Amino acid sequence: MRIYDHVTDLSEVHIQARRIFRLSTVPALALAVAYALQIPLPFIAPLFAFMFAAMPGPPMGTKSLFGLLVVVLISLGLGLLLIPLLFHYQFTAILLVAVGLYFSSYLTVNMGKALFGTLLTTGFTLISAAGTVSFSLAIMVIQGLALGIVVAVVCQWIIYPWFPEDPAPAAKKPAASTPEQSNWIALRSTMIVLPVYWLLLTNPTAYMSIVLKAVLLGQQSSTIDARSAGRELLGSTFLGGIFAMLFWGLLGISTNLWMFFLWMVPFCLYFACNIYQLIATRFPASYWLNVATTMLILLGPAVEDSAGGKDVYTAFFSRLGLFVLVTLYAWFAVYVLEHWRTRRSLKLVPLR
User: Fold this and answer.
1) Is the pLDDT of residue 46 over 90?
2) N or C terminus of the chain with fewer C-beta within 10 Å?
3) Are the C-beta atoms of 291 and 271 separated by less than 8 Å?
4) Does 282 have pLDDT greater than 50?
5) pLDDT by residue (tens digit) across 64-86?
6) CA 237 – CA 232 distance, rounded (Å)
């Protein structure tokens, strides 16, 4: 990376470099703060921080953060309402979850509400399943998600003044998808997440991270086609697992929060260089974003396993194997559904 000479103000640094520095420091700081404060599910904070910091632009303000927290509590609270149904009317509850997943995906695809759609999906799946174990566990997950968002945004507030964005004209809104295309992609995303939700219901405490991965896969599948699904979904999942193993091995040299923070910086720096194309790569930014989020989702439970005295490596490879299976299913679902749709559209074409 180029060293800038005679720069007295960080705002003079090239915008690409500022975005890279911001994306590499915000998740690391969020990780340190979340683990230092011992919030529930502390790995959620760097996960949200990476997703927020990857979007060019200033962080949300105080009013926007308050509004987002209200949305979080409402969307995740919907999952609490499903808990009694899962105990007494399970089939009805699963149908409601399927409708909720479809609606969440439709919001993401047709209305551009990716964060709201992700939170709704998490509420319908993760919170409702956690409530079948205990209501207090579901509340703890909601607290972890809400506090993780707060930590991520506050860390953005701290880092952003050092690496600000350039003033830019208002961006044009992307062209909206047609209703038919939006419905199809929402249905495809629902078919990816719903079977994983059934698996989650069998053992919610063991499969929580798997559902987080499935939610991200469902969101990512809305932007890819069947031809690139294998490379985008499976390739990024494998690479995320490799980075998680490398990170864990390096962390084993000296295991403490300070080193956890320090190692996170160069890993996020590498991902940021690929996302913003400072390092030439044939993979799009979404690929590297998925690699980073997969690594974070794998690392978080591994740290919890280590603190609880569990066999970290057995649990890690078991979790990674389930990630790969879920990703293979997502790839297969995208391919089969797209193939069926193509054949159906050909049959509907009138012959002349």
Assistant:
1) yes
2) C
3) yes
4) yes
5) 888 888 888 888 888 888 888 88
6) 8
**pTM of the complete model:** 0.83
Give the number of other CB atoms < 10 A from CB of residue 285: 14
Say what the pLDDT of residue 7 is.
42
Q: What single-letter amino acid sits at 233?
A: L
pLDDT of residue 24: 92
Confidence band of 309 (pLDDT split at 50, 70, 90)? low
Q: How many CA atoms lie within 13 A of 200 on its CB side?
A: 28
Contacts 24+ apart (CB under 8 A), 198-204: 198/94, 200/125, 200/126, 200/129, 201/86, 201/129, 201/132, 204/129, 204/130, 204/132, 204/133, 204/137
Question: How far is 6 from 191, CA to CA, in rounded Å?
Answer: 55
Please answer whether residues 233 and 217 qualify as being in contact, where contact means their C-beta atoms are separated by less than 8 angstroms.
yes
Euclidean distance between CA atoms 215 and 317, whole angstroms: 20
Q: Which two tokens stand for residue 303?
A: 């740290």
CA 164 – CA 158 distance, rounded (Å): 11
**Cβ atoms 147, 40 nearer than 8 A:** yes
CA 133 – CA 125 distance, rounded (Å): 13
H/E run at residue 192: helix 179-202
pLDDT, greater one: 111 or 120: 120
When the pLDDT of each residue in the chain is averaged and rounded to a whole number, the result is 80
Nearest-angstrom CA–CA distance, 335 and 337 = 6
Contact 232, 290 (CB under 8 A): yes
